[in-house]
Amino acid sequence: MFKILKYEYFISKKLLPKDFIYPSVYIEFVSQDKPYDMDVEPWHFFCSHLDYRFEGLKKRYPDKILIPFARRGDNDDVACFDGSQKSDDPKVLIIHDFATNGWENRGECENFPAWLKMAEAESLEWKQYMLSKRHG
Prior knowledge:
Blueprint: H1 24-31, H2 34-37, E1 43-45, H3 50-60, E2 66-72, E3 77-82, E4 92-96, E5 105-109, H4 112-135
Antiparallel strand pairs: 1-2, 2-3, 3-4, 4-5
């Protein structure tokens, strides 16, 4: 097991679903301060208010078990581990928070490394678009 150094990247244990386990690859990622080193804007890793967002997602989408870890700064998309999967490698669900129940699904990734790759690609595309708007 990895030593968890950054508690702000995790939902309080008392709130987490009993059988949910954070993926070891995610624990290693945050333990090495990679969220600070990695620029995947417009995506931002939650480093506070996780319990609040978790509780809100639970109320808005009671049919899902969503464990949030990142959000997009330019819209209401939230990256969440699929808490219904009892595995060390759960899917990542992209949820458009505050959408009407049934309309919230924006996509999914096979796991955290796949989401990270997608976030890096989206970041590059977003930065190129923002640069073209400034110089266009």
